[in-house]
Design a protein that fits this description.
Blueprint (H helix, E strand, L loop, with lengths): L11 E6 L9 E7 L2 E7 L17 H5 L9 E3 L8 E3 L2 H17 L7 E5 L6 H4 L2 H9 L3 E3 L5 H11 L7 H4 L4 E5 L3 H4 L4 H9 L3 E5 L5 H5 L2 E3 L6 H14 L5 H7 E2 L1 H9 L3 H8 L3 H13 L3 E5 L9 H9 L1 H5 L8 E3 L10 H5 L10 E3 L3 H6 L12 E5 L3 H4 L3 H8 L5 E6 L11 E4 L8 E3 L6 E5 L12 H11 L11 H9 L11 H7 L1 E3 L21 E2 L3 H4 L20 H6 L2 E4 L15 H7 L3 E4 L1 H6 L7 E5 L4 E8 L7 E3 L36 E6 L5
Parallel strand pairs: 6-15, 7-14, 8-9, 8-12, 9-10, 11-21, 12-13, 15-16, 16-17, 22-26, 23-25
Antiparallel strand pairs: 1-2, 2-3, 4-5, 4-17, 18-19, 19-20, 22-27, 23-26, 24-25, 24-27
Helix pairs in contact: 2-21, 5-15, 10-12, 10-13, 10-14, 10-15, 13-14
The chain binds ligand MGD (2 copies) and molybdenum atom.
């Protein structure tokens, strides 16, 4: 790419970044003709993007100019949830919202009765978390704990290693044993795959550890169909064998960790037979996996989010992540484990978000307990009821757990709801005001990554569609109408990017806005020989890798790696498991991005109807045949799907890929009608896959 067009060129190629919640954070080239985007392309020069985009983002232009795209503010005219609106002007919308928010802020319940709600519509630093935070911090709104995705694993990793870092595709290519542990790489992290393929061509073995034979597992040399939520038991069984057979790296453990001896004693309890009973994997296979992991160099674990969406998810991530510390795999280029590389990016989030503006004592509401927050008068955490709900970058009426409770909350007549969106989503249908937001092609942003080390600039390539405004601009205008006159509300989006880059971290030295405009993306100044824990100085309380993390005990958590059975498993709750004997997993559907792209016709066609996958033995017991309409339910709710009878799922497990829109779904219900608002051991994370259900045939009506 030599011809770098300036933003808003009428015709040319503009450099952008994929905004979506994915480890790959692709560098995108947007082809523009006469002011209209005609095509997006992966940057062929970017070492991770390698010239290709995924199934979904290839359709970004189709989504941007979708006939249903919001172009003007909408005011609700029908009952909540029905989705009837009339167009309004920005002045009408913003004047009304500013007045209502000021009334609520100055009313008897005070500003904490305002709840912001945002997540991963864009991972941009600017449109995802800058003016919005300044705005809510300044008015004194409740804080949102953004736990829906990664907080269990993040906290588990933090307690163990401090910052999240690990081999990226560039290093993983050198590995000779690769465990894809709780991750569907080809769907959720596709730009890792070329590196894995090259590793394999050089002799590496790939093993998938997943209750489902996913498209990724099917491509691996081997698939270990583990029982959901039992990964810590597998890791402890492997450690048992490693210590028993003297395959541990004593020098690494001595120099870089605390708690190795305690771990050896703990692992001694986890004989392969015991681990086999818990995980459902053969004992001899666990023995062999332990030997392979300890003796193949480099050995790499890509551990991802599947295993943390269960009650014990934080400790499970922590436990698995310690395998390379036990064997010293971290010493090798391409050895170790990667949960995320986000800890490598030390942008100046303080300048962007102004956490110093948060009033002391402001309460925090956990986003996955939204149903409770909207339906309990004290929001479940104490304090005033939620009276205003401001949503952007998220679709909680589709993605949050326990949707029955969420909908009950959104239906409240005394709740004032504003949704900033590209489309009238499930959530927007309940809004008093829907505000049209710009897409990634229409605004500035800067992106970190959680699967590599490149910082990427997004330049706008087209003018906003219709009257759409960037999130930042909506909050700027609201602030001004509400009488907030801090100069920080006048910063432009490019000012915000410059502020984000103003960091004294050496890995960001010399990475300026001007350079990003010129080059599009820049690798952090991390060492070329990237082995982040070869000779580590982790920023943990002890300055060591914490096998033993004493601070966890203060939260009632075992400070040593351990196995915590899933909350809804037979081990933890036999009575519940007798009523609901199937564990329902609902990982991403290949052509969708969470609940985004669900309304893009070509991708909706590719995904087809909601499916419910069952093992032949489970289907047989229930009289369910391939293609049957089935009902899947528990005490929280139900949804319908088409049965797929397949040995790709373990007995005892049901699968329905997500995240669907309720409004397009059979009976208006989705998997998230069955999922629970319970939280993980660490980080208050979501337990989407710790979800016991039952399934029955539900013959088509008529
Ligand atoms: N196409 C596409 N890509 C995406 C997304 C998307 O929606 N669509 N979402 C993005 C987001 S937000 C995220 S967080 C990432 C998620 O990235 P990944 O974590 O790689 O995502 P999943 O595809 O959910 O893969 C999780 C896998 O874990 C398995 N699993 C479930 N429970 C367990 C368990 O207890 N143990 C083990 N070992 N495996 C288990 C599931 O069967 C599933 O195959 O993907 C991102 N990429
Ligand atoms: N059952 C089940 N549920 C899950 C999961 C699962 O695996 N199973 N995965 C969970 C995970 S990992 C995650 S991360 C969450 C994700 O949940 P969300 O963060 O809600 O992500 P999306 O569903 O992609 O919805 C993002 C919305 O933001 C909008 N948007 C995009 N860009 C912009 C913008 O610039 N401005 C504004 N105002 N809006 C924008 C999009 O149109 C879209 O409707 O879902 C979770 N829910
Ligand atoms: Mo996520």
């Amino acid at each position: 790419m030599n011809s770098i067009a300036l933003p808003l060129a009428q015709t040319g190629v503009v450099r952008g970044a994929c905004p979506h919640d994915c480890p790959d954070t692709c560098a995108m080239l947007v082809h523009v003709q006469d002011g209209r985007a005609v095509r997006v392309q992966g940057d062929p020069e970017h070492p991770v993007t390698q010239g290709f985009l995924c199934t979904k983002v290839n359709r970004y232009v189709e989504r941007t100019y979708h006939a249903d795209r919001l172009t003007v503010p909408l005011r609700r005219v029908g009952p909540k949830g029905e989705g009837r609106f009339e167009p309004a002007t920005w002045d009408e919308a913003l004047d009304d919202i500013a007045r209502r928010l000021n009334d609520i802020r100055n009313g008897p319940h005070g500003p904490q009765s305002i709840l912001p709600y945002s997540y991963s519509g864009t991972l941009g630093q600017v449109q995802g978390g800058s003016m919005d935070r300044r705005f809510f911090h300044r008015i004194g709104a409740s804080l949102l704990d953004r736990t829906i995705c990664a907080s269990a694993g993040s906290e588990g990793w933090k307690a163990t290693y401090g910052d999240r870092m690990g081999p990226t595709p560039t290093e993983a290519e050198h590995a000779r044993l690769i465990l894809l542990w709780g991750t569907n790489t080809l769907t959720s992290n596709p730009h890792l795959w070329p590196a894995l393929r090259r590793a394999r061509e050089a002799g590496a073995r790939l093993i998938a550890i997943d209750p489902i034979r996913t498209r990724t597992a099917a491509q691996c040399d081997e698939h270990l169909p583990i029982r959901p939520g039992t990964d810590a038991a597998l890791a402890l069984g492997m450690m048992h064998v490693i210590f028993r057979d003297g395959l541990q790296d004593d020098a690494y453990l001595r120099d870089h960790t605390v708690g190795a001896e305690e771990l050896r004693i703990r692992a001694a309890e986890w004989t392969p037979a015991r681990a086999a009973e818990t995980t459902g994997l053969p004992a001899e296979r666990i023995e062999r996996l332990a030997h392979e992991f300890a003796t193949t160099r480099p050995a790499f674990i890509r551990l991802n989010y599947g295993l943390q969406r269960h009650r014990g998810g934080g400790t499970a991530v922590r436990t698995v992540s310690l395998l390379p510390a036990v064997t010293g795999a971290w010493r090798d280029l391409g050895g170790g484990a990667t949960l995320s590389t986000s800890g490598a990016f030390k942008l100046n989030s303080g300048a962007l978000q102004r956490p110093d503006w948060i009033a002391p004592g402001t309460r925090t509401i956990n986003m996955i307990r939204l149903g409770e927050a909207l339906t309990k008068p004290d929001a479940g955490v104490g304090g005033p009821p939620v009276q205003a709900f401001i949503v952007y970058n998220s679709n909680p009426a589709a993605v949050a757990p326990d949707l029955g409770a969420v909908r009950a909350g959104l239906l409240r007549d005394d709740l004032f709801t504003v949704v900033m969106e590209h489309f009238v989503t499930d959530t927007a249908r309940y809004a008093d005001w829907v505000l049209p937001a710009t897409s990634q092609l229409e605004h500035w942003d800067v992106h970190t990554a959680y699967g590599h080390l490149y910082l990427t600039l997004n330049q706008p390539s087209i003018a906003p569609v219709g009257q759409c405004l960037p999130n930042t601009e909506i909050f700027r205008r609201l602030a001004s109408r509400m009488g907030l006159d801090d100069p920080e509300f006048a910063d432009s989006d490019t000012d915000l990017i410059r502020q984000a880059l103003k960091s004294d971290h050496p890995w960001l030295a010399g990475i300026t806005f001007e350079r990003l405009v010129q080059e599009g993306w820049v690798r952090l100044n991390a060492p070329e020989d990237f082995r982040p824990y070869a000779d580590p100085r982790p920023n943990t309380p002890t300055g060591k890798i914490q096998i033993l993390a004493p601070e966890l005990a203060a939260h009632g958590i075992d400070p040593l790696p351990t196995y915590i059975p899933p909350a809804e498993s037979a081990e933890a709750d036999p009575e519940r498991a007798a009523r609901y004997p199937l564990m329902l997993l609902s990982p991403p559907e290949h052509p969708f991005m969470n609940s985004t792209f669900v309304n893009v016709p070509s991708l909706a066609r590719a995904a087809g109807d909601t499916k419910l996958l069952l093992h032949p033995s489970e289907a047989g017991e229930r009289g369910v045949a391939e293609g049957d309409r089935v009902r899947c339910w528990n005490d929280r709710g139900h949804f319908f799907g088409r049965a797929v009878v397949t040995e790709d799922v373990r007995p005892g497990v049901a699968v329905s890929y997500g995240v669907r829109w309720a409004m397009h779904s059979d009976g208006g219900r989705t998997v998230n009608d069955t999922t629970s608002q319970a939280v993980t051991d660490l980080g208050g994370g979501a337990v989407f896959y710790d979800n016991a259900v039952e399934v029955e045939p539900a013959p088509d009506r008529g």
